[in-house]
Amino acid sequence: MSKKSCCAKPIKGPKGDPGDPPIWGNITGDPADQADLYGVFATTVDLNAGLEQAAGNLSDAIAQEVIDRNAAIADTLTDSIGGLVETAANTTYRLGGPSAFAYTIDSLDVETDSGTITVAVKINGTPVTGLSAVSASSTPSSAAATAANTVAVGDYLTFVTSANSAAEGLLFGITITRTP
Predict the structure, then answer these.
(1) Is CATH 1.10.1740.10 what the domain over 77-178 is classified as, yes or no?
(2) 3-60: per-residue pLDDT in tens?
(3) What is the secondary structure of the chain as a DSSP string?
């Protein structure tokens, strides 16, 4: 068999259809050897189709993961209600107007810059169990709500201070959980 060299010129696709993309290169050998070029072309097309399918599957998997994570996030949302009372007094502080959404009170964190004071959290005047007498001082303190801690739409949340002994800089945070 004699091998002839062909210059770099476009040749039509394997079937010679005008719509097939041109293939560039130097082709040598007899026509039987040149048929191998069609196999390479077909394998490349198959690989590209496989990669497109794999990319589609990966995209679907990522989309499902985002949906699953958003569903988990949608189950509960943790937030806080907090503030600073610069000069504390024995009084009741209303924390906003009527609640716009339902939530559960989880805990109370309190601390003062100086002095001591006792703090209670109430819903519509009813003490939240576990948060009815939390001592605040310059050492941070935390207490968990254990019962009577569900706030409904329209309820009022109050923060009651008592046994004030020169408390200054009363910082408080009420951790809540709600469903969006």
Answers:
(1) no
(2) 555 544 555 555 555 555 555 555 555 555 555 555 555 556 566 666 677 666 777 7
(3) ----B--S--B--TT--TTSPPB-S--BS-HHHHHHHHHHHHHHHHHHHHHHHHHHHHHHHHHHHHHHHHHHHHH-EEEEEEEEEEE--SSEEE-SSS-SS-EEEEEEEEE-SEEEEEEEEEETTEEPBT-SSEEE-SS-EEEE--BS-EEPTT--EEEEEEEEEEEEEEEEEEEEEE--
